Amino acid sequence: MTVHGHCMPALLLILFHIMPVAESSKMITGFAGDNVTLPCSYDTRKYGRVAVCWERGEIAVFTCNDEIIATDGFKVTRRTSPRYQLIGDLNQGDVSLTIISAEMGDSGIYGCRVKIPGWFNDLKNQVTLTIKSKYNRPFFFCF
Ligand SMILES: *[C@@H]1O[C@H](CO)[C@@H](O)[C@H](O)[C@H]1NC(C)=O
Fold first, then answer.
1. Does 5 score more than 60 pLDDT?
2. Measuring from atom 6 of ligand 1, which residue has the nearest CA?
3. Of 4, 39, 64, 107, which has the fewest beta carbons less than 10 angstroms from its beta carbon?
4. Whether domain 22-133 has CATH 2.60.120.10
């Protein structure tokens, strides 16, 4: 079967409608040099301890594509940089990502995927992070 080029936009629109990827989306703003926390949590009483991964970029359909940190629910199992930390209480399902000493280049989209067992059960939270320079604050309002 061949699909004519002009049909593709319509097909993609249908695909995006039947595959909503991120369930929730938040905006976080932080300042360069500060520790910045991107919130994500799940209910451990309902699901028990489950694996979670964080990725950079839009949340992928099936798994973390560009994974930056992962936990098995008890401890961090992988991370791509010591600047990425899970300092929340994993007992309580707090899998918020803390970025130590944020940099301008940390700005962008992040996805938290809670891997609830079973097909298409994963919880997906997307966070858009904006890091601002401390020196761009409009200090003239102080006078
Ligand atoms: C950032 O977090 C690290 C590690 O938890 C800590 O040592 C440091 O003091 C924190 N920095 C700030 C500015 O809070």
1. no
2. 100
3. 4
4. no
